Write the structure tokens for this entry.
Amino acid sequence: MITPLPPHIYSQKTPAAGTSLYTSRAIPPGELIFRVERPLVAALDSDQLGCTCEGCYLSSADGTTVIWRGEAKKKACQAQSWKSHHKYECKIFKSLRPKVLPNTVRLVIQLLLRRRAGSLSENEWSSFLALQSHVEDFQSQQTRNSENLTTWQTIELMSQAASSYSGSQEPLRSIQTITARILINAHTLTTPTLDPLGVYISIPSSLLNHNCVPNAALTFSLHGVLSVRSLLAIPASAALTICYIDSTIPTDLRLAELRERYHFTCLCASCTAPHSPSWYDTTEAMESKFYSLVNKASLDMPQNLEVLVQALLAFSSNIPPHKHPLPQIHRQILLAGLALGELHLALTHALVIYFYVNPVLYATLHPVRVVQGWVLVRLVTALLIRGEREKLATGKAGTMTAPYDDLDPRIVISGLWQEVNESVQRSHGSDSIFAAEVREWGEQSGSTIIAPTITTQDREREWTKLRKLADESQRDAMAGC
């Protein structure tokens, strides 16, 4: 069953944008616009099979085996997954073990099998077929991938596999069109904290058009519930928009990616505003150097901190921290620092992102900004509480926590937590498991970590110190050049 839209949300077709969703009344920031209770179809990424439940989409902490919340929950999830789709595909996938088909092929197979079994209503099927497929655009596209295949050739191969394994009697051309529709209309299924899990199709959200400065964003919660919430104040009669790609990359790269993947030229205010070429695009060697450094870092975790710092040094003297590719470098150093236990390094880059990157690139309620704020809360807590314990044990600050010795841990942690706790109610919804995690963390931390009240003066004093730490990190990078 397709989730009905609220009365004030309606679809309208225009020559320029096709069928889009609009609102008949003004929507304030942080409002739930609509919710999709279950996907039409969804498929986990190959690396998530076995460690993510296909019923509720909860992942294990260590990424190895699914962890259910009790035996009853396990049985309920398995029953739901079996009833909705897995009973149609189980024999096929079992016969292929240990081979795992790509998630797009598994989605096509799921659609074909459910269509044949009658578990998709005529309304669901016709609504899916009404979505854009851009078949002719795919066929005319000449760009080739690493295997020297055009996108259409890839679609042909995936469709042939889906046809063969499903035993469908649908004409191959029809299956190719189904595959194309999935590539155009699928969302990335994520955890509430935005870690990718797979691909997800829903009819209502597929009608949301793109804008590089969107007025809405998607989040996912338990059981694949998709929520569309407003990022900004949306006036009556306005189109609802989300961003299909990474909006932080330069205009020319965004335009190229949108043409390549979605076959349209973006005419949003950001893309049509006068702009000069990105500085690094003027030198192909510099762009190549950045990507080679980042690719090298991703392949060799023990070495990647050094490589990523090299990338930061190569670019930081030329551009401000919010300009591509510096946000990506700061985030990757943050993640590498967390993975390797280099918490001081991770925190300095988290502070640069907090003060100088996210306020420029994302609206206050953007899920990316809220999730990264939560990472900062946990990082600051880990370091400052560790510092307090070291001082109690030794009478002096430890080498790792010495830079933060002047900070008041309770005020800093409380201020950051309050920001996230207030924002997550509107970015994800008060009923989301992420909001519950943030709220429960604050309750469990209690007075030992969270200050009952914080004055404006207290906050300004401590935030000045935090900004100084971020500035020192920036200066160190500049000095390294």
Notes: The chain is about 55% helix and 10% strand. The radius of gyration is 24 Å. The first strand starts at residue 9 and ends at 14. Residues 279-284 have pLDDT under 50 and may be disordered.
